[in-house]
From TrEMBL:
Record key words, sorted: Chemotaxis, Cytoplasm, Hydrolase, Phosphoprotein
The species this protein was found in: Bradyrhizobium japonicum
InterPro entries: CheB-like, CheB_C, CheY-like_superfamily, Sig_transdc_resp-reg_Me-estase, Sig_transdc_resp-reg_receiver
Catalytic activity: [protein]-L-glutamate 5-O-methyl ester + H2O = L-glutamyl-[protein] + methanol + H(+); L-glutaminyl-[protein] + H2O = L-glutamyl-[protein] + NH4(+)
Gene3D superfamilies linked: 3.40.50.2300, Methylesterase CheB, C-terminal domain
Gene label: cheB
Subcellular location(s) of the protein: Cytoplasm
Record-given protein name: Protein-glutamate methylesterase/protein-glutamine glutaminase
Length: 397
C-alpha cells in the first residue's frame, strides 16, 4: 500500500479563498481515517473526500473537485500509478503527492510517478503504532499539502504540462531516469530578482556541495547532466531530504544521468574526485579528515531541521577540510536547511548559489539562503550548471 499526492499543472484562475480541499485515496480504512483526522485539525485545509480505490477517485473527481489528492499506490480495481495519469488528464492542476512504504519496488514506483506528473512523494511508516515514525509522517504530510497547495493557488492562469514520461532504460532492469521538471511556478510572488547578492570570493573551489528537498530529485537530474567537467576533477557531495531505499534509487538515477560513478556514501570511505557521494536516507553525511585526505562520516544522531539526512551538517563539516575553497548550491525545497551551513561557508571564504524562485518547486531552502544575503548568485535551474562549470574553471565573476 502507498499514498500519493497528485501532480500539478494549471487550467484556470488561481483560487485564493477557503481551505485547501484534499482527497484521500487509500484502501486502508486505518490510513484514511488517520490522514483525514490530521487534515481536519488544520485551519487551512479540509477533507474533500475519503475514497478506497483509484477508480473511485477517477470517477468522482469532477464532483469532488479537490486541490490536492493523497493517492495510495497499491489499491484494488485501479492502483495509484495507473490512476495518476487519468486524474491529471481530467484535472491538470491537481496536486498529487505519492506516499508509499519503504520498499525498493515502491521507491521505484514513486520515482516513476514524478516523471508522470506527481508533485511529490512521502514515505508511509510500516506501522502507525510507532510514535516517532507516525509523528514524522504527520509533520511531512501536512507540510507538503500546505506548501504545494499554496503554490497551486498562487499560480498564474497559464497551463503547464506534467513531466514527460521517462524513457525506457537501455539496459535490462536498470531504473528509468527521472526526467527534469519544467520550471515550476513560485510559492510566493517573484522576488528573487530584487534580492542583493555578494561578490564571489577569490578562493578557487575544490569541492561542490549540493543540498535539496522537495522537487530535488528532478532538479538534481537536470543539474548533474551538465557537471561532467567538474565531477571529473573534483568531488561532489549531495544531501537530498529522502528516506532509506529512496536514496539508493536516486543514486542509480544520478549515475545514469551524469554518466559518472554515483552511490550512497559509505562511512569511512575516502572522498575523491570523479565521484558523486549521496547522503544515505536516515543518516547525516559529514566529512572528516583522514590523514591528509577527506573521508565520509555517517551520523545516526537526531534530525536536524526536521530532516535526516540534513544539509547543514554536511556544509558545516566541509569547512574543516576545504576551508574557503567550497562552492555550495542550494536547490528547491521546503524549510531553511542549508542556510545556516551556507552562512558558515561564506564566513570561511566560500560561496553559495541558490536556485531562483521561479524555477523552484518550493522556494523555502533557497529562499532562506537568498533572504539571508549569503548568496553570490540566485539563478534559474537551467543556468546553475554552466555557472558552476565556469567557477571551477577559474571564472570568479
Amino acid at each position: 500500500m502507498s499514498v500519493a499526492f497528485a501532480g500539478n499543472s494549471t487550467t484556470g484562475p488561481s483560487r485564493d479563498a477557503g481551505p485547501l480541499r484534499v482527497m484521500v485515496v487509500d484502501d486502508s480504512v486505518v490510513i484514511r481515517g488517520l490522514i483525514s483526522r490530521w487534515i481536519g485539525a488544520e485551519h487551512d485545509m479540509e477533507v474533500a473526500a475519503s475514497l478506497r480505490t483509484g477508480l473511485e477517485a477517477v470517477n468522482q473527481l469532477e464532483r469532488i473537485n479537490p486541490d490536492v489528492a493523497v493517492l495510495d499506490i497499491e489499491m484494488p480495481e485501479l492502483d495509484g500509478i495507473s490512476a495518476l495519469p487519468q486524474l491529471l488528464a481530467k484535472k491538470r492542476d491537481l496536486v498529487i503527492i505519492m506516499a508509499s512504504t519503504l520498499t525498493r519496488r515502491n521507491a521505484e514506483i514513486s520515482f516513476k510517478a514524478l516523471s508522470l506528473g506527481a508533485a511529490d512523494y512521502i514515505p508511509k511508516p510500516e506501522s502507525t503504532r510507532e510514535a516517532s515514525a507516525a509523528d514524522i509522517f504527520h509533520h511531512d504530510l501536512i507540510q507538503k499539502i500546505r506548501h504545494l497547495g499554496a503554490r497551486l493557488r498562487r499560480r498564474p492562469t497559464v497551463a503547464s504540462p506534467p513531466l514527460a514520461p521517462a524513457t525506457p532504460a537501455p539496459a535490462a532492469r536498470a531504473p528509468a531516469v527521472v526526467r527534469p521538471a519544467a520550471p515550476a511556478p513560485a510559492l510566493h510572488a517573484p522576488s528573487s530578482g530584487a534580492l542583493s547578492t555578494r561578490p564571489f570570493s577569490a578562493h578557487a573551489p575544490k569541492v561542490l556541495l549540493i543540498g535539496s528537498s522537495t522537487g530535488g530529485p528532478q532538479a538534481l537530474m537536470a543539474l548533474v547532466t551538465e557537471l561532467g567537467p567538474v565531477i571529473d576533477r573534483f568531488p561532489v557531495l549531495i544531501t537530498q531530504h529522502m528516506p532509506p531505499t529512496f536514496t539508493t534509487i536516486l543514486a542509480e538515477h544520478l549515475a545514469r544521468a551524469s554518466r559518472k560513478p554515483a552511490a550512497e556514501a559509505v562511512d569511512g570511505e575516502p572522498v575523491k574526485p570523479g565521484r558523486i557521494y549521496l547522503a544515505p536516507g536516515g543518516k547525516h553525511m559529514r566529512v572528516v579528515r583522514s590523514g591528509a585526505d577527506a573521508a565520509i562520516a555517517l551520523d545516526d544522531g537526531p534530525a536536524v531541521n526536521f530532516c535526516k539526512p540534513a544539509v547543514d551538517p554536511l556544509f558545516t563539516s566541509a569547512i574543516d577540510i576545504w576551508h574557503g575553497n567550497i562552492l555550495s548550491v542550494i536547490l528547491t525545497g521546503m524549510g531553511s536547511d542549508g542556510m545556516r551551513g551556507g552562512k558558515d561557508i561564506v564566513a570561511a571564504g566560500g560561496n553559495v548559489i541558490a536556485q531562483d524562485e521561479a524555477s523552484s518547486v518550493v522556494w523555502g531552502m533557497p529562499g532562506a539562503a537568498a533572504n539571508a544575503g549569503i548568496c553570490a548568485a540566485i539563478l534559474p535551474l537551467n543556468q546553475i550548471g554552466a555557472k558552476v562549470n565556469r567557477l571551477f574553471a577559474g571564472d570568479r565573476s
